[in-house]
Write a structure and sequence with these properties.
2 domains, 43% helix, Udp-n-acetylmuramoylalanyl-d-glutamate--2,6- Diaminopimelate Ligase, Chain: A, domain 1, alpha/beta, 6-stranded parallel β-sheet, 353 residues, 13 strands, globular, Rossmann fold
Length: 353
């Protein structure tokens, strides 16, 4: 049985890529399982990890969620048994891994929301990959040059830990970064003898969050078009400028979320005449009734939150798209991406050797 560890940060498409590869491996008559040692709790109410639910149902695994992902953390996890470094945590992880891997040709381990999470307890991706004797596939979304630098640093850490790297996949790459990723970033990795398994373009159908996912992150009150919360959000525009200055941004940004104060009804009305998916009013200020009427007419949800604009934008950094098990179209796109853009030969060779 071979272990493949997928690492990357939340929002880069790590789990979607792992799912696509797992399904392609199943097409090769390989028995593939899944494990996520360190789940992440987004809100105050504990519920099953979305990634675990997706993998369990699509891969048809017989294990309950608490076995597939035995330990859950949040941004303030250093309390209770974690502070005491309770050995039962490691026992639980190892016991669950043994259950999930027994009888399979390969098991995919899904890293946490970022490779460094859990480092204080030795539960980071670098330590866990070493612990399980895994080979790593690193998922990298290059929005800028700094992201490449960070990826190279992480890859160097695995090398120092003597953890084999199967390769890197550039994923969720925007049109603006497509040529640079293929013409600059990929050659840099290859010159450093880092195998690039593929470059996958960004596709809104699986990468862009929905208005509902924005609302789940922000809370607040829905003032208009509550039945259109499934609209995709591809861009975010902050409406703090004059109408004249904003007009160009509003026209260029497709399927956008406009974030502005409730006293900027002029900005909202202008945005409603362009490609807009949602308007988010900040500061608890109710907008002019004309905005709500026009939004209902256009089918554009309007959300009112009580935080200021800066805090609202910061909260949106936590939003990323989750694929649901029933979304057959998204799963098909994920598999097509692997088929068209990823070289699976090194992965198959690793499993069969």
């Amino acid at each position: 049985m071979k272990t493949i560890y997928f690492s990357g940060k939340a929002g880069d498409g790590k789990t979607a890529t792992a799912l696509g590869i797992a399904l392609k491996l199943q097409e090769q008559d390989l028995k593939v399982s899944y494990f996520k040692p360190l789940g992440f709790q987004k809100g105050a109410v504990k519920k099953e990890d979305d990634d675990v639910l997706l993998m369990r149902e699509v891969l048809k695994l017989p294990f309950p969620g608490e076995v597939l992902s035995p330990v859950t953390v949040n941004a303030h996890y250093l309390a209770g048994r974690f502070l005491k470094e309770d050995p039962s945590i490691w026992y639980k992880i190892d016991e669950s891994f043994n259950r999930c891997s027994r009888g399979y040709d390969a098991i995919i381990i899904d890293g946490s929301v970022a490779p460094f999470v859990g480092y204080n307890q030795g539960l980071d991706d670098f330590s866990l990959a070493k612990h399980f004797g895994a080979a790593v596939i690193y998922i990298l979304k290059t929005e800028d040059d700094f992201e490449l630098d960070r990826g190279l640093l992480y890859i160097e850490i695995w090398s120092c830990r003597e953890v084999p790297l199967l390769g890197c996949i550039f994923n969720n790459i925007s049109r603006a970064q497509w040529d640079k990723t293929r013409g600059v970033y990929r050659p840099i990795l290859e010159r450093k003898q880092i195998r690039v398994l593929g470059v996958i373009p960004r596709q809104a159908e699986i990468a862009a969050p929905t208005v509902a996912e924005f609302y789940n992150a922000l809370g607040g009150e829905i003032l208009a078009a509550p039945d259109r919360m499934n609209r995709l959000v591809e861009e975010v525009v902050i409406g703090s400028m004059t109408i004249e200055s904003a007009l160009g941004y509003l026209r260029r940004a497709p399927n956008k979320a406009l974030i502005t104060g409730g006293d900027r009804s002029d900005m909202a009305l202008t945005a409603l005449e362009t490609s807009t998916s949602v308007i988010i009013f900040t500061g608890g200020l109710y907008p002019d009734v004309r905005v709500l009427a026009r939004a209902e007419e256009k089918g554009v949800p309007v959300i009112l939150v009580h935080e200021d604009t800066f805090s609202t934008v910061e909260n949106l950094h936590k939003v990323y798209r989750s694929i649901h098990p029933q979304n057959n179209e998204a799963i098909r796109i994920v598999m097509d991406n692997i088929e068209k853009h990823v070289d699976l030969t090194p992965v198959l060779d690793y499993i069969r050797q």
